[in-house]
Amino acid sequence: MVRRGIALAAIGALALTGCGEGAKGSGGTAKVGLITKTETNPFFVKMREGAQAQAGKDGLKLMTAAGKFDGDNEGQVTAIENMVAAGVKGILITPSDTKAIIPAIKRARDKGVLVIALDTPTEPQDGTDALFATDNFKAGELIGQYAKAKTAGTTPKIAMLDLAPGVTVGILRHNGFLAGFGAATVDAKATSLATAPQVVCTADTGGDQAKGQTAMENCLQKAPGLTIVYTINEPAALGAYSALKAKGLEKKVLIVSVDGGCTGVKGVKDGQIAATSQQYPLKMAQLGVDAVAKFAKDGTKASGYTDTGVTLVTDKVVSGVDAKDTAFGLQNCWG
Fold first, then answer.
1. What domains are there in the chain, each with its CATH number?
2. pLDDT in tens, 21-62
3. Which of 158, 303, 319, 326 is deepest in the core (most CB within 10 A)?
4. Three-state secondary structure along the chain?
């Protein structure tokens, strides 16, 4: 929902490319832009694949861009400006800084460009024309419900390995987990991280595996006897698992996560992660590009929020929590 890893930098703060010629209209080939948080993360690689395939079907030319790192708002602002200058009809963006990007998006919209957020809503959400994304609160809620049921009868001591301050997707997953676990009364409208007495350690990981490992090591020192680890994504989860294994605790602590990438689902299958909420970046991109194609054709504007789905994936099902097994997860994973 912030995704993880360092991106390859191509030109200054961003990489900007064009690919895929479509059918010519009266004004030439319409262009659609895709701006992701990073260039190399498998989630965004799959998103670009989906966008390129749909652009080909819809007769659009796809332009892509990404910042140097997750959180590179300046790079995304530059990408928006370059794409508007290039004459795109619409821009699809996974915003790194959900508040700071708003002025640049407004300038694009004021010039008649359709702007759609993918995966991560801006703050406020109506800063874009539309949003195609996972219900990240529900994704957190599912793993919270699962963790609650799986550890019933024990006294929970929870570590929460979060994303980064102020990022909407991180807030939604964190709060959804606590709501699903029954540890906090909070809903998807909250704009800050909820707290709960069961939570004995919190740390930011940036969704990065190495940072997830370090965060877990620090939490183990701060709060021995942990029973549950919530992680913002699967790289952070695998980092946490490495730290736990080094202490011989990998079978004593339950790890839950969000994303549904192939590496993460394999982690569930191998028992490193107990359960994960799987999301679908390919679908987000396909719907987004198709919406821009309709706008380019007749001015029809997409609006509001479209839920692109989320599924709990685990091989250790618990009563009362709907889930699919890792065979399903591997058939629908990405990366």
1. 14-134+280-302 (3.40.50.2300), 136-278+312-331 (3.40.50.2300)
2. 433 434 579 999 999 998 888 899 999 999 999 999 999 999
3. 158
4. CCCCCECCCCECCEEEEEECCCCCECCECCEEEEEECCCCCHHHHHHHHHHHHHHHHHCCEEEEEEECECCCHHHHHHHHHHHHHCCCCEEEECCCCCCCCHHHHHHHHHCCCEEEEECCCCCCHHHCCEEEECCHHHHHHHHHHHHHHHCCCCCCCEEEEECCCCCHHHHHHHHHHHHHHCCCCCCCCCCCCCCCCCEEEEEECCCCHHHHHHHHHHHHHHCCCCCEEEECCHHHHHHHHHHHHHCCCCCCCEEEEEECCHHHHHHHHCCCCCEEEECCHHHHHHHHHHHHHHHHHHCCCCCEEEECCCEEECCCCCCCCCCECHHHHHHCCCC
Q: What is the pLDDT of residues 257-296, one digit of tens each?
A: 999 999 999 999 999 999 999 999 999 999 999 999 999 9
Length of the chain: 335
